[in-house]
Amino acid sequence: MILLATFAALLLSTVLILAGHGLSSTLIPLKANLAGFGDLQIGLISSSFYVGFVIGCLFGPFLILRAGHIRAFAALVSLMSGAALLHPIMVDPIAWAFFRAITGVCFAGINLIAESWLNDQATNENRGTVMSTYIICYLGATMTGQLMIVGFDVATFVPFAIASIFVSVAVVPVALTRSAQPAPITLVRFRPVRLYQNSAVALIGCLLIGLANSSMWALAPLYAKQVGFSTNEAAYFAAAIVLGGALTQWPIGRLSDGLDRRLVVVFLAAAAALTALVLFMLENSSFWPTLSIIFVLGMVSQPTYAIVAAHAFDHVDAEDYVETSSGVLMSNGIGSMVGPTLAAALMFAIGPDGLFVWVAIIEVVLVVYVVSRMLINPADEDLEKTEFEYGATSNMGAVLTPDPLDIEDPYVIPPEEFPAYETDEGLASEEVGDLPNRNDEDEH
After folding, report:
1. Which residues on adjacent β-strands are paired with residue 412?
2. 10 neighbors 118 (Cβ within 8 angstroms)
3. Engineered SS bond to 249: which of 239, 303, 326, 332, CB 3.0-4.6 Å?
4. Which helix (H) or strand (E) holds 426?
């Protein structure tokens, strides 16, 4: 309880933001379909969020260095809340793509702030518990937001206003917190060539996983609506994918500790391809059977990122964890930028079931690629694996790592490149690198 109280304000703010984000993410494709947007336009709108997310991961740290965690958080929350309200005011696909890109930038920055703050205040002894609690809150709040659409009329302004209110109110707990603002966030270079050399499966695997999973997150509600299910039922489809992945990520991850993780990825991808093909072949199925298969698809498709991330950590030294964590997230984000657009194009060409044809194709490509890598590089029997951690292998943000962040990491941009770090009290008189970590128990 004491541990939870330490992070209560930050977790409460995060939960409120995620509830609003979950509601708007489910609402937007449904509202776009109702407004007469084409499938390709809806796909582009969904992809725009991930374009913004990648931009936010790249440039968010500079905003935090300039303004400090609390003021950057307040600015991003305000901008994200405003973007939510603009959707029903300007009902235009180009405008919506721009609003979703802004939302993605804000969402990435908010994630960076929350996760770096948690990393800074956690100790070596409780870091795993803190990050796992954060991920559970993350998934639970997202699903709650997705399900909040039940009972709302998507044709009205109200659900957009509710989403905006949740995001706006989220600034209050952080703004009033008495916790010390953390030390400045570390900046990490994204070096795909180095990541590929360390683990080709990590770079290419996360790219493919982004292509498939982002399409399901973004377009599952649209699929449900187009095949004749109600708005409320479409919300359950979106939540089922998240819930399925949340339930299986940890047990499958722990199972992978005793196996070649690539074998686990092959099994999951093959199962996802098969499940997607079952959904494609369904004809005039009722709600519950379809929802059940969607749930199974979430169970086998969503944990693959975590297993690939764990595989990447197995093949790098501890000082490379920060760069590796950022690298796999960026690879996943790049795939997510184009996945929904290409999936929507296939839905336009062959119908709503084109979503699952797309997912099946990508999962088969993932199977073929990973098997080819296994033939080139057989498993090392003497490899010392990093124990699977629920929080460290999540794709929720860019600073979740199995070890605490180390400002002395040689692949982190040197802090002396930044003249000062602005806090709520003004520019710090010390160099960034001289700022003490407020966690006396953490040698990092």
Report:
1. 188
2. yes
3. 303
4. strand 426-427
Instruction: Kindly report the backbone phi and psi dihedral angles of residue 114, in degrees, each rounded to the nearest multiple of 5, phi listed first.
Output: -60, -45
Contact call for residues 104 and 55 (beta carbons, < 8 A): yes
The tokens describing 279, both together, are 């959904």
Vertex 378 angle, CA 372 and 380, to 5°: 145
- Cα 29 vs. chain centroid, distance in angstroms? 18
Beta pairing, strands 426-427 & 422-423: antiparallel
Tens digits of residue pLDDT in 284-333: 779 999 999 999 999 999 999 888 888 888 877 766 777 777 788 889 99
8 A C-beta contact, residue 234 and residue 225: yes
* Residues forming a β-bridge with 426: 423
Residue of 269, 274, 262 whose CA lies nearest to 375: 262
> Backbone phi, then psi, for 194, in 5-degree steps?
-65, -40
Residues 160 and 30 sit within 8 Å (Cβ to Cβ): no
Write out pLDDT tens, residues 218-255. 999 999 999 999 988 999 999 999 999 989 888 898 88
User: For residue 425, what pLDDT is reported?
Assistant: 45
Structure tokens, 410: 């040689």
Tokens 């992978």 belong to residue: 256
User: Which pLDDT band holds residue 145 (cuts at 50, 70, 90)?
Assistant: very high
For the entire predicted model, the pTM comes to 0.84
Number of Cβ atoms within 10 Å of the Cβ of 402 = 21
Report the 10 Å Cβ neighbour count for 187: 19
Tokens of 157: 């302004």
C-alpha of 232 from chain center = 24
Q: What is the DSSP string of 143-212?
A: HHHHHTTTT--TTSSHHHHHHHHHHHHTHHHHHT--SPPPPPPP-B---HHHHHHH-HHHHHHHHHHHHH
Q: Which amino acid is at 180?
A: A
Burial 23-38 (b: 16+ CB within 10 A, else e): bbbbbbbbbbbebebe
Phi, psi at 391, each rounded to 5°: -75, -40
Q: Mark residue 426 as left, alpha or beta (left: phi above 0; alpha: psi -120 to 50; beta: remaining).
A: left
